[in-house]
Amino acid sequence: MNIQKSVNSFLKQCKRVLKVAKKPTTEEYLNFSKITAIGIAIIGVIGFVIVLIAQLAGV
């Protein structure tokens, strides 16, 4: 019985989230994509700099 209550509770929470959720507009999607691309580029540059420093240091 306890498992059934927790499953029902979970399904109610999922239903509530889906009611509140909305599809992003084109502008929101483009902004999100730009921010994600900038973040990936920054992480890549940091990784490249670390590898470059390690190679120059002879590690």
Ranges with pLDDT <50 over ≥5 residues? none
Radius of gyration over alpha carbons? 22 Å
Mean pLDDT: 93
Oligomer: single chain
Based on the model shown, name its key terms:
mainly alpha; 59 residues; 86% helix
Describe, in plain words, how this protein is organized in 3D.
- This protein has 59 residues and is mostly helical.
- The protein has a domain of 37 residues.
- Helix content is 86%, strand content 0%.
- It contains 2 helices and no strands.
In short:
The chain crosses the membrane at residues 35-57. The protein is an all-alpha fold and 59 residues long.
Write the layout of secondary structure elements.
Layout: H1 2-20, H2 26-57
